[in-house]
Input
Amino acid sequence: MKEPTSIEALELTLTTTDGATLGARLFEPKDARGSVLVQGATATPSRYYDRFATWLAERGLRVLTFDYRGIGRSRRGALGRDAMSMREWAERDSVAAHEALRARDPDAKVLLVAHSFGGQSLGLADRLHDVSAAAMVGVQFGYVGHWPTLGQARLGIVWNVLVPGFSTALGYVPGWAGLGEDLPGGVAREWARWCTSPGYLLDHVEGSRERFARFTAPTLFYSFTDDDYAPRAAVEHYLATLSGSERTHRRFAPSDLAQKEVGHFGFFRPRFEPTLWREVLRFFDDAIEGHPSSLGPHESRAASRPNETDIAMDLAHGRD
Output
């Protein structure tokens, strides 16, 4: 393990091809040996990834985090005023971040950290495939039918009642409704359409299935038995679609990591630095050096079901 190095955190403004401006942050070590793009989850501000990004940068990796339009540092005025979509988040916002990171050091290998929606973006923009390796956390296809019966009932209310209602009345879905961050109405409505379709975004975005299959970078994939946002069926649906990549799936129960919970957001909490964070760094080092990954798959033998406390912590994005 390399000794931590000093870093500089720079606030950036990125401009997309359609003229939108995005807030971003670059974590720059003195002598970067690679570049990492963090593509975050839906309704999760980029500041949530700051501690993880800082840790990677202190170990010699340049890291760029950014906010999708309408979220965090990229929010510009009232959300109900402009139409936005998840497709724009990938096709324009993620691509703009990728281009900015690539321009910083054209010779450096680019590595991807994709959390939830960040991994779904690979089916929406081929430009995002230009990475040497990807570490994915809690990525899934969110069709409601992948959840247990009670979960289907709860999510049915969200997608068929709450999202249309808030979007019509306010123009957006407020964070206090359970998402943690205000969500632009256009994004929420598109998400709802995907989540109520058996093929998720594959049913709505032409060429997306083929685009996922074209992604070939080695992938280290994490899922967790107590992740209420990513049940096993939803994870397996996504993994099957990412058919062109050499995938290493490491599925953990919290007890495997000597923890009480992980959930959908826990991976990025500092208590996982000795375990999960170090695995990702090892995986990226292998990719930078051109070596096959030294990590193998992991399947938890522990049974775990999320309780109400776990779910409440996830809904709050674990910002403690």
